[in-house]
Amino acid sequence: MSAQPDAYTEALDRALLHAQAWLASLPSRPVGPRVDADTLAALSEGPLPASPTSPADVIDELASFAEPGLMAMPSGRFFGWVIGGTLPAALAADWLVTAWDQNAGMRFATPATAVLEETAGGWLLDLLGLPLGADVGFTTGATMANFVGLAAGRQWILEQSGWDLDRNGLAGSPRVRVFVGAERHDVIDLTLRYLGLGAPIVVDVDEEGRLRPDALAELMTAGDGPAIVCLQAGNVHSGASDPMGAAIDVAHRHGAWVHVDGAFGLWAAASPSYRAQLAGVESADSWATDAHKTLNVPYDCGVAIVSRKEVVRKVFGVHTSYLVAADATPGHPGPGDPFDKVPELSRRARGVPVWAALRSLGRDGTIALVDGLAANARALADGLLAMPGVEVLNQVVFTQVCVSFGSDERTRLVTQRLIADGSAWMSGSRWHGRDILRISVSNWSTDAADVALSLAAVARAGAAVEADAGR
Ligand SMILES: *Cc1c(COP(=O)(O)O)cnc(C)c1O
After folding, report:
1. One CATH from 1.20.190.20, 3.40.640.10, 3.40.50.2300, 3.10.20.310 for 92-357
2. Smallest Cα–Cα separation from 183: which of 124, 104, 242?
3. Do 372 and 364 touch, CB atoms closer than 8 A?
4. How far apart are CA 125 and CA 378, in angstroms?
5. Tens digit of pLDDT for each residue in 106-137?
6. Does the predicted TM-score (pTM) go above 0.90?
7. 302: Cβ below 6 Å to ligand 1?
8. How much distance in Å is there from the Cα of 230 to the middle of ligand 1?
9. In ligand 1, which atom is closest to the CA atom of 185?
10. How far apart are CA 351 and CA 356, in angstroms?
């Protein structure tokens, strides 16, 4: 029996109403959830009911159960971790992707989504100034995009040293040295664990967390054997990027594969005002970024970019009789199948919301998005600096601001007060031995009013901590 269209209509109508109510609540609701997970877990105890429930009732129950436990991450006053909101075109496109329900791995089987993703990939390469012939794959996030780039690097660098990884595996292979900056993101170590590459060799960084090319050169010279250098565009604390040109020169002189983790920071390359911070980045071999951070598509979407198509396809391509491959002619790489470029065989067409986001912004809108995030970070930093006893610990060069309120204890108390206040949400963290309040401006919708309200909330939290101390 095939499902009747009406079977969907009522549930989808309810979902639309609940989605609109959620989005309409964002400007006024407290940013944090009103209940914690343990409270919700207690409410949802019990086995799966035996009898069916109508789809529309399921959607109503789901929405009312979830509502108090939702964090307003898409709010213009959410500045936690590094998390973007959702552009309207991207959200609506994501719904269509779900309704279309394409298993988007094969160009032959799902031509519409394959071509939309290829188009989005081409636009991304152009915007970010990366080699136009590179392969672009859409992953769940930057973690998996980093995995793709580093897996391609592992394959290539071992091939260069005469080791057949596909045949022999890693056991007995030459040791691959992986060089990372001391302030790389933790997921780099995670992906190295996936890849069986062991602990990285850690390179010194400067006061903004940028890898020092002289230190890299020294460490690379001190040993030999196949090497991968993993650089960072966008330190989660300072927002600063490693000196790409100089570091890539050093790495390539030693024959290394260079991968760049640019989860949010690679987007600096899209803006004429910030691109100089990444000068030379295009000469790396692979890049990882997120679309669910700076580009503001809904979760989840990362982007894995590899300049050597044949390498990434060798690692991730699936060649078996029941799948129809896009590239029948040997020696002509062509566009390839989506499943050649990412770890998954079956997956949703998560590049389609990227297409919609970019199509809605256009080139000028994409530049304005990046510039606007950085300008709001600057405005927040300036407003904080005007408050007595507040220090901004980083040079605010992009979207990240690290703030101290004097002692570690006071900084922690202000952070707790701010989160309890609910008008804005910022994360606590630790950087260079100090507790900090960390601000990441990643939401397209943050405007001057959000900045003003958020600064007022921080000032209120600071005054409340002051009053408690005086009591
Ligand atoms: C967010 C982030 C990651 C991890 O990305 P996910 O999308 O969460 O998988 C990696 N590196 C940096 C620099 C990040 O900011």
Report:
1. 3.40.640.10
2. 242
3. no
4. 27
5. 999 999 999 999 999 999 999 999 999 999 99
6. yes
7. yes
8. 14
9. 11
10. 9
